[in-house]
Amino acid sequence: MSHTAHIPSHRKPRQRASKSALRAGVAGGVLSTIAVAGAAGPAQAEPVTQTIEMPTITSGFAPAVAASAQATQQVALDLETQADEDAAAEKAAKTAKKAHAEAVRKAEAEKKAEAAAKAKAEAEAKERAERASRTSERTTLSASSGSSDSGSSASAPSSSSSNVSGSAASIVAFAKAQVGDAYVSGGTGPNAWDCSGLVQAAYRTAGIDLPRVSQSQSTFGTQVSLDNLQPGDILYWGGAGSAYHVAIYVGGGEFVGAQNSSTGTVQRSLDYDRPTGAVRVL
Length: 282
What we know:
Elements: H1 17-40, H2 62-155, H3 161-177, E1 182-183, E2 192-193, H4 195-204, H5 214-217, E3 222-224, E4 234-237, E5 245-251, E6 254-260, E7 264-269, E8 277-280
Parallel strand pairs: 1-2
Antiparallel strand pairs: 3-8, 4-5, 4-8, 5-6, 6-7
Helix pairs in contact: 2-3, 3-4
């Protein structure tokens, strides 16, 4: 036997396995409880006190960006150029359309002007022919009136019925010869008249000087009924002394008068425009 066998050991005896397992279980439970409590409570994040700087990537990137910008600028310029070209084309089309319309309008205006000039020339030629015819007729009337007056004065006094009849015929013939002449306010002939100018000129062929205006002519003579008219009587419209229009009764229920600028000198039925009254000068 060893001489040390009887000496008791100073080391603590080994813990039993069951006791160790118990302690491990208690420790695990405590840790689980702490973990559950930590999960149930608000998280306490530690503040970030360090800034992390990301590295700048520049190598090989700048040329690509520049190329992209240049391409974008070129596309913008191309679009702007195309827009300008489209606008110019549209403007040119509108200008051409307007020029065409203007050319058509001018052509139509020239055509109308030519037609108007032709019509005017024909009307003037016709008027000249009518004037020549009326001049010839007036010359004949003047000659016959002169011979009639001289014969009447030799054979009968001026108040005889034959003299009155001859003067009335001269007045009526002159008035009818002016049919177709123009109406001009203040006109006294030979180819344009107003109403009183025509009446005055007709009576002058019979050697009678009438007042110039219709108001005075409507009272120059004896008032007669419209139912008892004789050729050569003066018809008037409006009141006696304030008449606004006069004409000459030519027989057959008709009169000759310079009516207005639209109709000129015309021969019309009394029913066309019924006069207000009449005076007899002859």
